[in-house]
Amino acid sequence: MAACPQPSTMMPPGRILPPLLLALLALSPAAPCSPRPNTTRFVCTEPTLSTFPTGLPPTTVAISVEFTALATLLPTALAGLPWLRELHLSSNRLAALPEAVLRPVPTLRVLDLTENLLADLPAGLFAGTNHLQHLVLRGNRLRALRPAWFRHLPRLQWLDVAANTLAELPPEVFLPLHSLRSLDLSRNHLASLPPGALAGLRALQRLDLEGNGLGTLPPAAFAPAPALRFLFLQDNALQVLPAGIFVPLRHLRVLDLARNHLRALELPPRPPGPALDLDISGNPWACECPLLALLRRVAPRLSAARDTLCASPPRHQGQEVAAVSQAGDTGCEPKGDRQHPPDP
């Protein structure tokens, strides 16, 4: 692994350097983070680095140039690195990438571009990287996703485009991603999902839509992704969920609906195995017979029970939803057994 030496101290003009110091300076690399011969992993976090290192040996399989002043990449930056598997370029100043920059590394598996200044990517950037498995674009300035980016990524398993400025998704944009297991779209500006937004994602197990502006969802939003196990919808603006929207998700294990504007809920049929981990805190729940009967039947593990309160009807207002659903006296017994008048 290459070390990142500190820059040498500049001497005032006219000063005569001692012979030993001259010898040491002659052995020091002229640029920060110079690669060593025959290295396989190169790491540089030198804040003053402004150009991509050159002279990396062809044996290199992983490059990490992070937290530097790197602002540009030449189209030939990765030339001569046929075995490169991982490229980590997070927390730099990259505002654009050449379309041909990845062509010399067809065996690339991991590309991390977290926290740069990218507002767009070339349409053909990933045309020669059909072995890519992990792609992280989190914390950039992307305004849209291009379907062309994903046409050549049949092996992609992890896609993270969180914390960008995406306002909408093109229909069926993820259709070629048959191997995708995790998709993070959190903390963007999505107000809705187009029908078929998840088309092609039959292997998807984790979907994060936290912190968008979602006010509604298509009735069949999750039908193309029946393998979903983890679904995060917290911190949106959902008021009503379409009937049966979670029914296709028979493998669901974690569902987060916290801090929306929901009053009623439907859940997928309870499969054998562990109970559903459910967070429904911070919503104005109507603790009426359908919701209470659902919670007794599905028996999920409720997270943040103290913040999961009934907003109505008046006789349950302010009470914990879990406590009301588990109580024997809910006002929902058969007519002949009621101890209280029905909820208004």
UniProtKB/TrEMBL annotation:
Cellular component terms (Gene Ontology): membrane
PROSITE patterns hit by this protein: LRR
Pfam families associated with the record: LRR_1, LRR_8
All residue ranges annotated as the LRRCT domain in the record: 283-333
Repeat as UniProt keyword: yes
Leader sequence residues: 1-35
Biased composition (Basic and acidic residues): 332-344
UniProt entry tagged with the keyword Signal: yes
Region (Disordered) location: 310-344
Keyword set, alphabetical order: Leucine-rich repeat, Repeat, Signal
Protein name: LRRCT domain-containing protein
Organism of provenance: Strix occidentalis caurina
